[in-house]
């Protein structure tokens, strides 16, 4: 067992059983002199029946339930705050076993329910517009802590007979900075005996860790891939996103072309519009030139105001003008529909407000 600490607590934590993929669970059972077929039964209890206690797994022998109880935790998330928007968006602030906190968002669309998950406690990337990076990186989440976020949202939807239909990995943290745990999470939620969420209904986003983009391309999955771009040239991107100093825009675009050639799949570019910074007509023209010939889609994002940051929202008419310029150049572009505008919608904003000791 691993001992994890923060500023005030020291907790010896049992690992989350959600961290075990099906084959890993079978191997664990064999190592503990149990039948491998019990793994499917345990998965059924975890992901179909969604129980919270090992003792509720009634078709397992008591001796096995005791072993599971001794070695694992089912969930490591405690709901601290649950905010509900007028549009139905629900934002959760969860507390982890060691006292740190993370955010998860459940968004309701016409086409189904989407969950935005967090992969790290804080973030080391340092984007100048983002509340998630306030206070830096505290630690990575293990794959089970990421899976548990989707399970928690599904349990909330169980009350109204609905299901999680899609997942986006765009919450607090940089997913490719926690690559192995992110990949384990993807395999579990995609598995037909897990949460059975189709690969084409899952999207992972990165700020641009170039070596991991090549690695992800070589995984050759059907999972959707997005890049947080936010600037049409390397100088402006370096001002907004310090990661661009490590992996410049030309390097990033080279890795994107590799991904498209390797997988045959298009890439989405997330482009937040910041008033007077990156939202002028010349920026739109420059962006269209940057993306020429690339199989992609641009998602324009009207930014949420974050008190700790100085950026302001681009005026509505200017957003439509930016979109029009891109369309005139043949770029596939949409404006992201806003969710949770009346609650702490920006990524990391609720945590920054409620857990100031973590985000100083």
UniProtKB/TrEMBL annotation:
* BP-aspect Gene Ontology terms: rRNA base methylation; tRNA methylation
Record-linked SUPFAM superfamilies:
Radical SAM enzymes
- A Pfam family found in this protein is Radical_SAM
Residues noted as binding S-adenosyl-L-methionine in the record, renumbered to the chain: 173-174, 205, 228-230, 304
An example Gene Ontology cellular component term from the record?
cytoplasm
The cofactor(s) it depends on are: [4Fe-4S] cluster
Q: Where is the active site?
A: 103 (proton acceptor), 347 (s-methylcysteine intermediate)
- Give the record's cofactor note, including how many are bound: Binds 1 [4Fe-4S] cluster. The cluster is coordinated with 3 cysteines and an exchangeable S-adenosyl-L-methionine.
**Could you tell me the keywords of this UniProt record?**
4Fe-4S, Cytoplasm, Disulfide bond, Iron, Iron-sulfur, Metal-binding, Methyltransferase, rRNA processing, S-adenosyl-L-methionine, Transferase, tRNA processing
InterPro entries from the entry? Answer: Aldolase_TIM, Methyltransferase_A, RlmN_N, RNA_MTrfase_RlmN, rRNA_lsu_MTrfase_RlmN/Cfr, rSAM, rSAM_sf
- Quote the EC number: 2.1.1.192
CDD domains listed in its UniProt record: Radical_SAM (cd01335)
Q: Where in the cell is it found?
A: Cytoplasm
Give me the reactions it catalyses. Answer: adenosine(2503) in 23S rRNA + 2 reduced [2Fe-2S]-[ferredoxin] + 2 S-adenosyl-L-methionine = 2-methyladenosine(2503) in 23S rRNA + 5'-deoxyadenosine + L-methionine + 2 oxidized [2Fe-2S]-[ferredoxin] + S-adenosyl-L-homocysteine; adenosine(37) in tRNA + 2 reduced [2Fe-2S]-[ferredoxin] + 2 S-adenosyl-L-methionine = 2-methyladenosine(37) in tRNA + 5'-deoxyadenosine + L-methionine + 2 oxidized [2Fe-2S]-[ferredoxin] + S-adenosyl-L-homocysteine
- Which terms does the record give in the GO molecular function aspect? 4 iron, 4 sulfur cluster binding; metal ion binding; rRNA (adenine(2503)-C2-)-methyltransferase activity; rRNA binding; tRNA (adenine(37)-C2)-methyltransferase activity; tRNA binding
Q: Does the keyword 4Fe-4S apply?
A: yes
- Key word Iron present in the record? yes
Q: Where does [4Fe-4S] cluster bind?
A: 123, 127, 130
Sequence ranges assigned to domain Radical SAM core in this UniProt record? 109-342
Other comments on record: Reaction proceeds by a ping-pong mechanism involving intermediate methylation of a conserved cysteine residue.
What is the similarity comment for this entry? Belongs to the radical SAM superfamily. RlmN family.
What the entry lists under PANTHER family is as follows: 23S RRNA METHYLTRANSFERASE (PTHR30544), RADICAL SAM CORE DOMAIN-CONTAINING PROTEIN (PTHR30544:SF5)
Q: What does this protein do?
A: Specifically methylates position 2 of adenine 2503 in 23S rRNA and position 2 of adenine 37 in tRNAs.
Q: NCBIfam families under this entry? A: rRNA_mod_RlmN
What is this protein's record name?
Probable dual-specificity RNA methyltransferase RlmN
